[in-house]
Amino acid sequence: MAPALSVAENIFLGNYAMKSKYGIDWKKMEAEAERLLNKLGVSFSVTQKTGNLSIAQQQMVEIAKALSVNPKVLIMDEPTAALNDQETDALFDVIRNLKAHGVAIIYITHRFAELYRLVDCVTIMRNGKTIGTFNIEDVTDDMLVKMMVNDDQKAIFSRTRLEQGEELFRVENICIEDTCSDLSLTVHKNEFVVIFGLVGAGQTEFMKGLFGDIPISSGKIFINGKEVHIKNIKDACKNGIGYVSDDRKNEGLIPLQSVQENICLTAYDSLLSNKLGIIDYSAASSTAKHFFDQLRIRCKSIDQQIGSLSGGNQQKGMFCRWLANDAKVLLLNMPTRGVDVGARAEIYKTMESLSESGCAILTVSLEIPEVLSIADTVYVMHEGKIVSVLKGGQITQENLMRGALGIQSEQQGKEE
Amino acid sequence: MEQLSIGQKNRASMLKKRLLDYSLILFTIILCIGFSLASPYFLNIKNFMNILTSVSVVGIIATGMTLIMITRGIDLSVGSIIAMTGCVSAIIVMKYHMAWYVAIPATLLIGVIVGSLNGIIITKFKVVPFIATLGTLNIFKGLAFILTNGQAIYVSDKVISYMGTGKIAGIIPFPGLLMLALFVAFWWISKKTVFGRQIYAVGGNPTASRLAGINTQKVLFKVYLITGVLSAIAGLVMTGLTSTAMPSAGDGYNLDVITTVYLGGNSAGGGEGSVWRTLLGVVIIGILNNGMALLSVPSYWQTFFKGCLLIVAVIMDMMRRKQA
């Protein structure tokens, strides 16, 4: 979607109605665009800029664009993600109408409620494979969840579980505008706390909120029982909070700089320089070397550009950056993303030893096998809320999936 | 077996990189040899001191411009700052008859103000540096003309004169020495201070720097502020050199400064580079100008050759980076 172009132009982008070889037939295009939008049961000016429309209206433009080629098959990938209930109803009317006119529709969703309202036939996919196809009358929530999780997924790492110690990190009723509401959790020594949810359930925003990158509208944060106030990233760094991003390349590495520079980057200002801002290089290199060795980063030299290291070693460098800054809390957003299987175990071991030494470890994960193998406590998020807290034996594939999809658990259902 | 061949490949590409790295120094030496063969006046101490004086205005500003370019920015207003600060100092001394110890601090203060203005427009209002400084280029130049009514002002102050024409031990030009001192200072700042390392980090990856707790806007603000002050110093040197303050004095200096930074092999991509490279660029430009003048190359052709050289330098830098 090109926001600065008109609605009509967006609908026919790359497929303009032509008068001659070089002349665009605007009148024809606009009339045709209007006809398509009417067919969808909406009416707004097709000459206005698309960027001025609401998200729902833009979604309609997108659908009109798909219809402009008179499709026999229409594929829709989570089309209601940005729509409210009313707009969803309108879209469903359109879809039923298209169905009645003989268009085949493939509708991709993870919202169970939509299935029962809309579809005739459901196919369950998992890890790129088709698990089964059923008529909608024949399925139940339970069946769907069972098929969506994989029974024979093995643990990928076996943890050395030590006795949990004192409370290290606690947050209460954290709210972030538009994305997170009322999130509370506690992290203890030797405890791996994992936040699990589908993509876009608010995990990243929650992490960035705790790190001061996104403003928190309300809530309290405690480190070692003492309340801290985090208004910006500097506050977070000062209070010993570190954030390892899920997007290492864009949000973590300074690729042209050496491993040592990357490790010391945050600590330069706080620990490794004097009041005038002059760096104590002997302290810097011994600090960097200490964590470099402790985390066993493998490369030719600590002076090598970090961009040339493997994903796992780069990630260890990102951990080191916060350790060098005396981090007391590590927020790890998908710490094993882009890290090969061998290096994963090392990352988990690092996390274990950090937790044992009194550093609170809070991890976001999207991967069920990872959650199953490392988590002591799982907070399951769905649409910005924590919907369930699972501990020990409660951490099962089905419970995780139910929570993430926002379906009530079986037991709760029976109690009612 | 495979590892061995990768090692060899690395060594070969390292060698190529080194060669490209040193090619500029090699080029400079060849240039010197060529000019000394072609002109009997080229190879002597006095001529080299002339070269040092002639590049000092550009060199003083190029130190700050290097920092700006490491952060992926640019400052097009430096030439106008030279003109404006030169005129301000001349007015203070000649019109209001105040002493140099008023005029020089006041001029440097103007440098702080205009540098901050660039910094604020870029960091607070998020205007891209190219546009922001294109605007202030005209603002400062306009002010220089307004203040002087478009007239040149003759400056007779001894201290300001010394800033341009003074000789230490009867031979080393003060402005050249000042420039070299600034290069040393900025090398030290860029390597040994937190601020210096943050400049490289912000240029290398702004988002990652922010998430590492660096106040990236503050770093950017500072590099524009510093360049403003350096331009004011250059304005004083220029006024001293010519004994005249002219509102049109800074014309062409923007591009000269930017050219020297690129010519030394600093890359436009940001996050890398060094003031030593810029010094090399300054030296090359100085030698070229001087040599061509000695050989009576018409000035139009001098401009033409400098343009060609810049293009070649940038293409070579891109080749070097592809190797790496």
Description:
The complex is a heterodimer of chains A (416) and B (324). With 416 residues, chain A is α/β, with parallel strands linked by helices. Chain A has two domains: 7-108, 3-Layer(aba) Sandwich (Rossmann fold); 167-415, P-loop containing nucleotide triphosphate hydrolases (Rossmann fold), CATH 3.40.50.300. Chain A is 38% helix and 20% strand. Chain A has a six-stranded mixed beta sheet, with helices on both faces. In chain A, helix 12 packs across helix 13 (311-324). Chain A is globular, with a radius of gyration of 26 Å. With 324 residues, chain B is an all-alpha fold. Chain B has a single domain, classed as ABC transporter involved in vitamin B12 uptake, BtuC, CATH 1.10.3470. Chain B has a two-stranded antiparallel ribbon with strand order 1-4. Chain B has a two-stranded antiparallel ribbon with strand order 2-3. In chain B, a hairpin with a 3-residue loop joins strand 2 and strand 3 (172-173). In chain B, helix 1 runs parallel beside helix 12 (275-294), helix 3 packs parallel to helix 5 (129-148) and helix 7 crosses helix 8. Chain B is globular. Chain A binds chain B through residues 211, 213, 233-234, 236-237, 243, 245, 250-257, 261, 264-266, 268-269, 273, 276-279, 281, 321, 325, and chain B through 192-195, 197-198, 200-201, 204-205, 207-215, 271-272.
Topology:
The complex is a heterodimer of chains A (416) and B (324).
Chain A: H1 7-11, H2 26-39, H3 55-67, E1 73-77, H4 85-100, E2 104-108, H5 112-118, E3 121-126, E4 129-135, H6 141-148, E5 167-176, E6 180-188, E7 192-196, H7 203-210, E8 218-223, E9 226-228, H8 233-238, E10 241-244, H9 248-251, H10 259-264, H11 267-270, H12 281-294, H13 311-324, E11 329-333, H14 341-356, E12 360-365, H15 368-374, E13 377-382, E14 385-391, H16 397-405, H17 410-415
Parallel strand pairs in A: 1-2, 7-12, 7-13, 10-11, 11-12
Antiparallel strand pairs in A: 3-4, 5-6, 5-8, 8-9, 13-14
Helix pairs in contact in A: 12-13
Chain B: H1 2-38, H2 45-70, H3 78-95, H4 100-123, H5 129-148, E1 153-154, H6 158-165, E2 167-168, E3 172-173, H7 174-192, H8 194-204, H9 206-211, H10 216-242, E4 244-245, H11 253-263, H12 275-294, H13 299-323
Antiparallel strand pairs in B: 1-4, 2-3
